[in-house]
Amino acid sequence: MTHFTSYHQINPISVKLPNGNQVIANYSGSVFLNQNHVIDNVLYIPNFTFNLLSVAKLIDNLSCVITFDSSGCHIQDKNSLKMIGLTEMQDRLYILRIPSHQNLQIKPVKSPHITNTVNFTTSDLENLWHFRLGLASNKYIDVIKNKFPFIKYNKSFVCEFCHC
After folding, report:
1. Which of 36, 78, 134, 149 could cross-link to 83 by cystine, CB 3.0-4.6 Å?
2. pLDDT tens per residue, range 85-139
3. Among 51, 9, 10, CA closest to 33
4. Domain range summary for the chain, segments of one domain joined by +
5. Average pLDDT for the chain
């Protein structure tokens, strides 16, 4: 349950696995896809070694465009076309790397007037340009920093999505 940001017990739901077996899901919750995108109503299935993601659910939840090719797929915001996630193809499966929500260093702020507010740490703000620019490489961000010296960026940052 390391990817779940929250979860709750549900009425049991029978789920058919790819091998034909059926298991019962007793929990549902929310999973961070990345710092800006959360998928809701995700079923938790104990003893299942893979995290499966429905393309239809992803498109519905995130309003995104998914492009598949022989090496992987790109998940992009439908309106801005900003990169949401990348997959690699391994053994004919598309593998999506999702960072654990604990690794994102995002802290929810409780306020009676504001919901879903997020505080970022200094290191998050330094890495924000990487995500804003669609997982831009260090080389690309260096070019931007030369034109806009106020931009801060941590060169030692390694993205869990694109590994750059």
Report:
1. 134
2. 888 888 888 888 765 544 444 444 444 444 444 444 555 555 777 766 777 777 8
3. 51
4. 105-164
5. 75
